[in-house]
Amino acid sequence: MAAASAPSSSLYEILGISASADCHEIKAAYRRLARTCHPDVVAMNRKEYSATEFMKIHAAYSTLSDPDKRANYDKGLCFSFNNKRCVSGFSTYKTRRNWESDQCW
Q: Where is the J domain (predicted)?
């Protein structure tokens, strides 16, 4: 749970999963964390902290469980943080295109 309290943690770190996790792993991580962090199941003195943590967990789940939102998040993660794990098919440098070499002869 320590990763969820770090302000700069990614949504993957909040759920405790890898960036290559599939939808079943995302859902399982969300359910596991919800059982321990939901405000209805924690002690009375931890309700406020738990509510904040659960909102982070729910936001991470809602983004990563939707394929379109996840793709946009991953794209933003790659370009804004220059993440070394990210492998993008795009180049930030303009390349000179050659008509002859672009053809499939």
A: 10-77
Tokens of 2: 């320590």
Q: Token digits for 25?
A: 């792993």
Sign of the Cα pseudo-torsion (23, 26, 29, 33, in order): negative
Give the pTM.
0.65
Distances (CA, A) of 92 to 14, 43, 83, 84, 87: 29, 50, 14, 15, 13
The 10s digit of each residue's pLDDT in 20-54 is: 999 999 999 999 999 888 888 877 777 788 888 99
- To the nearest 5 percent, what fractions of the chain are helix, strand and coil? 60, 0, 40
Alpha carbons 2 and 89: distance in angstroms, whole number: 33
